[in-house]
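Problem 12. The chain below contains 180 residues. Write out its predicted structure in token notation.
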Amino acid sequence: MNGWTLPRSAVVEGRSYPINADYRDILEILSHLQGDSLTGRYVALALFYEDFETMPRAHYPQAMAELARFLNQGEEPEEAARPRTIDWEQDRTLIAAEINKAAGLEVRALPFLHWWTFLGYFNAIGEGQLSAIVALREKLRRGRKLESWEQEFYRENRERIEFKRKYTAEEEQALSAWGV
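Solution.
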């Protein structure tokens, strides 16, 4: 993978596999990669590689490494994970609005938008509500003092700023049974 082409396949153990490179596919894959679930990783691989069912099990580790490299626009992922400041699902409406502004069009209406192009638009997001929320999350994470306008914004938008707890299917079932 290089940064000047938009790959539609990945080479794993010498074999080229077609991949699902649309940003919607990748956002779905990212949702399965949250946490350390082996099932989530398996599902992510199955969603990413179009011919996953033909891939030998021994190739899964390299397949996961290629997926990680693709997610990182062809670059090797950083060893240490950075603290989370954005949630692709929770922040989706803000992200969509800001990406549309950066792209100059409604990206969700496109039949295909490569993940790397989507990230290019994402990285071009300027100041706005999303950047204000991300900055507040970072300040709160670091324990920094909020300015008065930030305190007011936080009070008024706490539901949007704080990450919602995500439950496993089993936890959701238990909560439902308890009537919570």
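Discussion. Residues 9-71 form one domain. Students who got a different answer should revisit the alignment rule from Section 12.3.
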